[in-house]
Design goal:
The protein has 15 helices and 15 strands. The protein is of the alpha/beta class and about 475 residues long. The termini are far apart.
Length: about 475
């Protein structure tokens, strides 16, 4: 265990043992005497970026009139109807800023050969707000994404500069349709215009990455065969640590270790179930990937929260689906496949069925918000410390439209976000304007512009005379 001989433990205290490394959450024992327990004002804000593919039904003309996404009222007195796609997040409206009517024009076709290739451009555009080069070769080119700009400035002194996660497979390889490299579909995180970052689908792989559980796949497999838990590898270090902590810190460490073990058990149950020989809902998925969308989302959310709690990383991205996915979500109340449902043809009944699917999918974020809110970091919750960006580079998926796209900002961002707010952008406003403002609030004040931004976008209620 890395412990200094001073009165305060170092913030980056690790429990180590036989190929396992466990970072610790913030403890009172890590704060020198005479310093307030709350974090300093300059503490970097955690950032989570989540992409929803296919837009939402509230971004087509009829759905907009039903206020399936944008509420009727702008400002603080907005109401979310029972069929609004964000209804499941209403308990966190004080942490919610809805931004409607922004465009993602960089995802549009710029030349005749690009027409029809929207599904193969969109994901790369979402966080870069840059237009991808049409190619199936190695000369891919797009832009640097919001999450990676933040990681490059504020994530270099953490164990992982950033964590990229996905729900569906992102390993098509080779070329995709309309002469686009699959690299554009496979990632929303770009470290540079020619370097998309791989996204992790398996909760087991993410767990092992966070906790250094073995130096190789063989070592990790051997550990799982010979030990019931990663905690077994660090039991001696835990015992040593406990002798140095007060009662409050002991409770905090116990809760944290219980969380680690519970996530580990859930992953083990998934692996056991998926290797039992029983029929699978996702036949081609690896053993560590849950068949249940909800179970998968919750495991990935819990891993992000643990990563933030231990300051293992401050930046995470999550791709909630793959463009043109035909996955079904019967738990939502609809048995239609996702992509066909998005092509509703403007039929009102079909729009509402697509909305049923989207409302259920968006409602999964409630679990993440709850977990962030109940996890303390100093005197504030992780929800107060974090900025969560959720949105889509598509508006009306029926038309492959990139106008009036959905965007929601959640969390307190260390006091930078007011919440409880709906702001409608003027027609023609690039979503990149909002991202420029968000980057400034994240501490990138020297950033002049981003993507195709034409300026900043105010996140406060306009003052009327």
């Amino acid at each position: 265990m890395h412990v200094l001989t001073s009165k305060a433990l170092p913030r980056r205290t690790f429990l180590r043992g036989a190929g396992a490394t466990l970072a610790l959450p913030l403890l009172d024992a890590m704060i020198p005497a005479g310093i307030a327990r709350g974090r300093a004002a300059g503490e970097p804000t955690r950032l989570i970026c989540i992409e929803e593919v296919h837009g939402v039904p509230g971004c087509n003309e009829w759905g907009a009139r039903q206020h399936l996404f944008a509420p009727v009222t702008q400002g603080r007195d907005f109401e979310l109807s029972d069929i609004n796609v964000l209804k499941g997040l209403e308990p966190w409206r004080d942490y919610m800023t809805i931004i409607s009517n922004t465009d993602v024009r960089m995802a549009e076709a710029f030349a005749p050969p690009e027409v029809g290739g929207d599904h193969f451009r969109s994901s790369a555009v979402f966080l870069t707000q840059s237009h991808p080069k049409q190619t199936q070769g190695s000369d891919i080119y797009c832009g640097t994404s919001v999450d990676q700009l933040h990681a490059q400035r504020f994530g270099q002194d953490t164990v992982l500069p950033s964590l990229q996660l996905s729900i569906e497979p992102t390993d098509s390889g080779g070329g995709c349709d309309y002469n686009y490299s699959c690299s554009y579909m496979d990632s929303i995180s770009w470290a540079s215009p020619d370097l998309p970052l791989p996204m992790i689908r398996s909760p087991r792989a993410a767990f092992d990455m966070l906790f250094g559980a073995g130096g190789s796949a063989d070592e990790r497999a051997r550990r799982r065969r010979t030990h019931g838990s990663i905690l077994d590898w660090v039991a001696g270090e835990v015992a040593d640590l406990r002798r140095q902590l007060g009662a409050v810190d002991l409770q905090r460490v116990d809760r944290y270790l219980d969380s680690v073990r519970e996530i580990e058990r859930r992953i083990e149950r998934v692996e056991e179930r998926n290797t039992s020989g029983a029929p699978r809902e996702l036949p081609g998925a690896p053993p560590g990937v849950p068949d249940s969308f909800e179970e998968h989302m919750r495991l990935l959310f819990d891993l992000q929260v643990l990563a933030f709690e231990t300051d293992a990383t401050r930046v995470a991205s999550l791709k909630m689906g793959r463009d043109a996915s035909n996955r079904r979500f019967p738990e939502s109340g609809s048995d239609r496949a996702f992509h066909p449902a998005s092509h509703h043809g403007g039929n009102e009944e079909a729009i509402l069925e697509f909305n049923t699917i989207c409302q259920w999918r968006t409602g999964q974020l409630a679990y993440l918000l709850e977990r962030l809110q109940e996890t303390m970091d100093g005197e504030m919750s992780l929800l107060d410390r974090s900025m969560v960006i959720w949105g889509s580079p598509m508006g009306d998926a029926n038309l492959h439209n990139h106008r009036r796209c959905p965007l929601v900002i959640l969390g307190g961002a260390n006091g930078q976000l007011e919440g409880n707010l709906h702001l409608k952008a003027p027609d023609g406003t690039p979503m990149a304007n909002v991202f420029t403002t968000l980057l400034h609030k994240l501490g990138h004040e020297d950033l002049v512009t981003f993507g195709d931004a034409t300026g900043e976008f105010s996140l406060t209620v306009p003052v009327t005379s």
